[in-house]
Amino acid sequence: MRGRAARAACPIRAWCHCGFVDTDLAAWTDVPKIAPQDAEERTMQALLAGRP
């Protein structure tokens, strides 16, 4: 498969930078953090709206 057909068959791959997400990994700092659910919701809204 090549070109357009390959892109149509592939899942969406996205990368986003949310800053610090409120997880154990970011527990070392006390800067403001975004909730994991908010990061997920905002990312999905952007994907569905076709925003980069």
Characterization of the model:
It is a single chain. With 52 residues, this protein is an all-alpha fold. The protein has a domain at 14-49. It is 40% helix and 0% strand. The protein has two helices and no strands. It is elongated and about 45 Å long. It starts with a helix and ends with a helix. The model has no long low-confidence stretch (mean pLDDT 83).
Compact description:
The protein is 40% helix and 0% strand. It is mainly alpha-helical.
Number of helices: 2
How far the N terminus sits from the C terminus, by CA atoms, comes to: 25 Å
Q: Judging from the principal axes of the Cα atoms, what is the shape?
A: elongated
How many strands appear in the DSSP assignment?
A: 0
Q: Radius of gyration from the CA trace?
A: 15 Å
Largest sheet: none
Low-pLDDT parts are none
Helical/strand content category: mainly alpha
Which features would summarize this protein structure in a list?
single chain, 52 residues, mainly alpha, 2 helices, 40% helix, elongated
How are the SSEs ordered, and which strands pair?
Elements: H1 3-9, H2 36-49
